[in-house]
Amino acid sequence: MKIHVNGDPVELPEGTTLAELLQRLGHAPEAVGSAVEGRHVPRAARAARVLADGESVTLFQPIVGG
């Protein structure tokens, strides 16, 4: 299947989760924020979030502080 990560096409096997995508891309889970189709996906939900063909994933640096 093909998805888009920050606008770039990425080929993945069917059934790949968001957590697996981050691992494939070499991102530490705590170092990146994530959204699928514009909706935030919390770290704890990434392993259960199965990606579908054509979906758009956005990865970003989380902002901390006050």
UniProtKB/TrEMBL annotation:
Coiled coil: none annotated. Pfam families: ThiS (PF02597). Signal peptide: none annotated. SUPFAM superfamilies: MoaD/ThiS. Gene3D superfamilies: 3.10.20.30. This is Sulfur carrier protein ThiS.
